[in-house]
């Protein structure tokens, strides 16, 4: 069982490190690279560097609020029926 | 089109607007040339830094969770002793007549 935990932990850290390095390169290093360098092809347009985190954050927050509201409604209905 | 004085200084120095020529004819050239984030040397403030801070904070939290999961101490000897203690306690209580439940 501890091996499964270690594997999940390792996967999480790898994902977070890769996201961090890709995003850092995209936002901080890329504006200083000249326009016709080949590496620009590996990154989407610069506007998406703001849009994608904002939309992800909005989606996560709304999902959390929906989930909390759903649980509250279910618990209040159960209390009323009992 | 009359631009207020404080704005006209910024427009000339940062956005490359040329005085004397109307702003309306210069708009296509300006909008095409300006990239979304410009390096700090050009005088335009960088828009993505707050979003970058939030994203890096989220990444840091995820990294700490992953590292904590990897370094979690499991203590296998104590686990075995604990199981033995549980069995002993269940027998003891069953002998005394207390209902122990999950078996």
From TrEMBL, chain A:
<protein>
    <recommendedName>
        <fullName>Dolichol phosphate-mannose biosynthesis regulatory protein</fullName>
    </recommendedName>
</protein>
<dbReference type="GO" id="GO:0030234">
    <property type="term" value="F:enzyme regulator activity"/>
</dbReference>
<keyword id="KW-0472">Membrane</keyword>
<dbReference type="InterPro" id="IPR009914">
    <property type="entry name" value="DPM2"/>
</dbReference>
<dbReference type="GO" id="GO:0033185">
    <property type="term" value="C:dolichol-phosphate-mannose synthase complex"/>
</dbReference>
<feature type="transmembrane region" description="Helical">
    <location>
        <begin position="49"/>
        <end position="73"/>
    </location>
</feature>
<dbReference type="GO" id="GO:0005789">
    <property type="term" value="C:endoplasmic reticulum membrane"/>
</dbReference>
<dbReference type="GO" id="GO:0180047">
    <property type="term" value="P:dolichol phosphate mannose biosynthetic process"/>
</dbReference>
<comment type="pathway">
    <text>Protein modification; protein glycosylation.</text>
</comment>
<comment type="similarity">
    <text>Belongs to the DPM2 family.</text>
</comment>
<dbReference type="Pfam" id="PF07297">
    <property type="entry name" value="DPM2"/>
</dbReference>
<keyword id="KW-0256">Endoplasmic reticulum</keyword>
<keyword id="KW-0812">Transmembrane</keyword>
<keyword id="KW-1133">Transmembrane helix</keyword>
<comment type="function">
    <text>Regulatory subunit of the dolichol-phosphate mannose (DPM) synthase complex; essential for the ER localization.</text>
</comment>
<comment type="subunit">
    <text>Component of the dolichol-phosphate mannose (DPM) synthase complex.</text>
</comment>
<feature type="transmembrane region" description="Helical">
    <location>
        <begin position="7"/>
        <end position="29"/>
    </location>
</feature>
<dbReference type="GO" id="GO:0006506">
    <property type="term" value="P:GPI anchor biosynthetic process"/>
</dbReference>
From TrEMBL, chain B:
<comment type="function">
    <text>Stabilizer subunit of the dolichol-phosphate mannose (DPM) synthase complex; tethers catalytic subunit to the ER.</text>
</comment>
<dbReference type="GO" id="GO:0033185">
    <property type="term" value="C:dolichol-phosphate-mannose synthase complex"/>
</dbReference>
<comment type="similarity">
    <text>Belongs to the DPM3 family.</text>
</comment>
<protein>
    <recommendedName>
        <fullName>Dolichol-phosphate mannosyltransferase subunit 3</fullName>
    </recommendedName>
</protein>
<comment type="subunit">
    <text>Component of the dolichol-phosphate mannose (DPM) synthase complex.</text>
</comment>
<keyword id="KW-0472">Membrane</keyword>
<keyword id="KW-0256">Endoplasmic reticulum</keyword>
<keyword id="KW-0812">Transmembrane</keyword>
<dbReference type="GO" id="GO:0006506">
    <property type="term" value="P:GPI anchor biosynthetic process"/>
</dbReference>
<dbReference type="InterPro" id="IPR013174">
    <property type="entry name" value="DPM3"/>
</dbReference>
<keyword id="KW-1133">Transmembrane helix</keyword>
<dbReference type="Pfam" id="PF08285">
    <property type="entry name" value="DPM3"/>
</dbReference>
<dbReference type="GO" id="GO:0005789">
    <property type="term" value="C:endoplasmic reticulum membrane"/>
</dbReference>
<comment type="pathway">
    <text>Protein modification; protein glycosylation.</text>
</comment>
<feature type="transmembrane region" description="Helical">
    <location>
        <begin position="49"/>
        <end position="72"/>
    </location>
</feature>
